[in-house]
Structure formats: structure tokens, C-alpha cells
Amino acid sequence: MTVVPLTAAPTLPLWRLGRAPEPWAWADRSYAGDQRWDDADGEFRTVYAADSAYGCFVETLAHFRPDPAVAAALGSIVVDPADAADYPSRRPGEVPLNWVDSRRLSSAAVSGIFCDVTGAPTIAAMRPHFLELVAQLGLTDFDAAAIKAARPRVLTQHIASWLYRREAQPNRFWDGVAFASRHGDELRMWAIFERPGDRPFSRLLSIQSESEVARSNSDLRAAFALHGLTWAPQPQ
């Protein structure tokens, strides 16, 4: 029996925390290529979404998380009061107050066929194609752990490139991937591939809502609590 990748399709609106004025727009090509499911060959761009607004905030704010070791090291440094006043710096876990200013939270209905990349059938089907790359990267095996790893992103980017050029069904190519967030399997994430003619955003989207992000947003506050974040003090 031939093992084929497992498919997935959003049944509820997806959410994206993106930049104004068009949160679902493709990133400028000069900024594309470093994210988890970006194209290894640079041919297409990828836009990322979550199945909840909370998931968007958890993913986007994760890089602000405080590192206890770094925080302890910084705490031992004596800073001249005049320097602190003239050149203020954020403490670990602080988020600038203007972080929300240029961002918009949007929901959209999404059609298409997505690959459930950590499903057992998917891993079994792709494993023979990526064992050589896995060995080159020094990974133990092609499995769910390798796919979920934060680094190196070379593997997941090559998976994205491989899927992009293959049919999910006769005469229908994969539209992207569905995957679990590294910050919790219950957070379902989606990566949507750019196809020729997709302007200014994916043809698969039907925008339903868009709003500015208030610092009082309950999902934003929940993500802050999860990551142990605080707002940076108002500049004097």
C-alpha cells in the first residue's frame, strides 16, 4: 500500500496578526526566506496564521520571553544613572508600548488543501525523501521531533519546497501546511503558500474582520501571562 501525506482543511476562520495596512499581504521578498515554512529556493512566499487570536499572540510574542540566565547576568551590571536616563534599554521580558501600533488583527475564511505535516501518514510518506538531508543536518531521524525543532529551519523549508511542487489531488497542488505550534500542540498553525497571481494576498482568503490591537485585548493579555511578559515603562 502506498502511503500518502495526510490532508487538513480549516473549518473555522483563521487569524493573523500582521502589519498595517494589509495584515494578510505577502512579506516583501527582501524579508522572506527565514521563517519555518518559507521556500528553501526563494520561489514563493508564505503567510502564517493560527486557529485563534490567542495563538497569533503566543507565536508572535515568543521572542520577547525572558531568558533567566541573561536576566541574572544583566542584573549584576551596575549602570550609571545618567546613561540609563539618556540611553534607556528594555529589561528581559519587556515589550515596547508601541509594539501594537502598526499591527492589525484579522480573521479570514480559508479554503484549500493543506498538508498535516506531523501526521503519521505524512511522516511515513516523506521520510524516504528527506533521510539524506536529515543525516547532513546531523539529526537523528526524520520524525515529528525533527519537524518541530526550532532550528535548523533548513529541513522544514525543504519540506515546504517539496510539497509546493507536488499534487495533493489530481491537478491540485498543496496550498500550504498545517502544524502544531512549538509553544503547545493545542495551538494549531497554518502556513499558506503563494501561487502565481496571488495579489495582494492569497486567493484562498475571504477576509471577515480586521481591527487595531488594544493593549487591553484579553488574548494579548493571556499571551503576556503565558510568556511572563510586561509592558516597558512609558519613556520620560
Précis, in short:
The protein is 28% helix and 24% strand. The chain has 7 helices and 12 strands. The strands form 4 sheets. A 5-stranded mixed sheet has the order 1-6-9-10-3. The chain has a 3-stranded antiparallel sheet with strand order 2-5-11. It has a two-stranded parallel sheet with strand order 4-12.
Write the layout of secondary structure elements.
Layout (H helix, E strand, L loop, with lengths): L6 E2 L5 E6 L26 E5 L2 H9 L6 H8 L5 H6 L7 E2 L7 E8 L3 E3 L3 H17 L7 H5 L5 H11 L2 E3 L2 E2 L2 E6 L2 E10 L11 E8 L5 H10 L2 E2 L5
Parallel strand pairs: 4-12, 6-9
Antiparallel strand pairs: 1-6, 2-5, 3-10, 5-11, 7-8, 9-10
Helix pairs in contact: 1-7
Question: What can be said about the biggest beta sheet?
Answer: 5 strands, mixed
Shape: globular
Elements, N to C (H/E): EEEHHHEEEHHHEEEEEHE
Radius of gyration: 20 Å
| Ends distance | 68 Å
DSSP strand content: 15-25%
Whole-number mean pLDDT: 89
What is the β-strand count?
A: 12
Notes on the protein architecture:
The chain is α+β, with helices and mostly antiparallel strands and 236 residues long. It has one domain. The protein is built from seven helices and twelve strands. The strands form four sheets. The protein has a five-stranded mixed β-sheet with strand order 1-6-9-10-3. It has a three-stranded antiparallel β-sheet with strand order 2-5-11. Helix 1 runs parallel beside helix 7. The chain is globular, with a radius of gyration of 20 Å.
Properties at a glance:
single chain, 236 residues, alpha+beta, five-stranded mixed β-sheet, three-stranded antiparallel β-sheet, globular
